[in-house]
Amino acid sequence: MRDDIDLHLAKRVFHRRRELNLTQRQLGQLCGVTFQQVQKYECGANRISASMIWRLADALDVGVHYFYDGLEKQHLNGAGVEVVKQVDAKTSQRLARAREASSG
Predict the structure, then answer these.
(1) DSSP 3-state helix, strand, coil percentages of the chain (rounded to 5)?
(2) 3-class state of residue 88 by DSSP
(3) What confidence score (pLDDT) does residue 88 get?
């Protein structure tokens, strides 16, 4: 059975991919999966693992919290959202430093 939160994440992946004019194949290549797997993520047939959410966030140029934005409080309390945002901000800073170091 599909969970409302899983479906919310699936929709967020779909809409962001479309905003960036990426095909499912292109997104799959960026994340190391097939376009069929991207299809399954976007329709909610397959759950998205934590590591894949991380890869999707990087490929779609958003923070991890992007996927959880808009969830109703009944699904995720405000404290949980803040924790995700704090972790995401710290991680984004680390990724930026790592990219700078590797390109320099």
Answers:
(1) 70, 0, 30
(2) helix
(3) 61
